[in-house]
Design brief:
The chain is α+β, with helices and mostly antiparallel strands and 146 residues long. The protein has a single domain, classed as Alpha-Beta Complex (Aspartate Aminotransferase, domain 1). The protein is built from six helices and five strands. It has a five-stranded antiparallel beta sheet. A hairpin with a 6-residue loop joins β1 and β2. The longest helix is centred in the first third of the chain and has 15 residues. The protein is globular, with a radius of gyration of 15 Å. The relative contact order is 0.17.
């Protein structure tokens, strides 16, 4: 059953509920969320979205009012939404040319249309292979403090 049906707008999922729904992907989720929280010194915000692209409860990370990323629990995996804005576009392209991203992320980037607000990369996280890609994209999006 889809996430937005299991936990509708009236039923806020707990961290445990999210972990159960993620299944084996919980370990990767935990690794990424721990890294985000430690690197950027931020806490997650759980919000409900009625967006037709990805409805349901999601986890948002914001730093100084700027969206860092949004995580969407899926059955057995999760999606990380990372927006590559106009300011980050050139740096991401250079990193791709340097071979710093997996072929999955490079292909996703190339097939994702550029909108006035940037490229909205909906990254399916099904294994650890893309974690470094996500970290790199987030570090380009918002530079972490040393």
């Amino acid at each position: 059953m889809s996430w937005d049906k299991v936990y509708d707008a009236c039923r806020v999922p707990s961290e445990g509920n999210i972990g159960e729904y993620l299944g084996e992907a919980k370990l990767i989720w935990n690794e990424l969320t721990a890294w985000i929280e430690e690197t950027y010194q931020i806490k997650p915000q759980i919000t409900f979205s009625k967006c037709t692209m990805q409805p349901g409860w999601n986890i948002k990370y914001k730093k100084s009012g700027k969206a860092l990323c949004t995580l969407y629990p899926m059955e057995g995996y999760f999606i990380a939404l990372v927006v590559v804005g106009t300011k980050e576009e050139e740096e991401v392209k250079l990193a791709m040319e340097a071979g710093l991203f997996t072929t999955y992320i490079t292909a996703l980037y190339e097939k994702t249309a550029y909108l006035p607000m940037g490229r909205w990369l909906m990254i399916e996280v099904k294994d650890k292979a893309v974690l470094n890609d996500i970290r790199h994209l987030l570090n380009i999006r918002i530079k972490p403090k040393k």
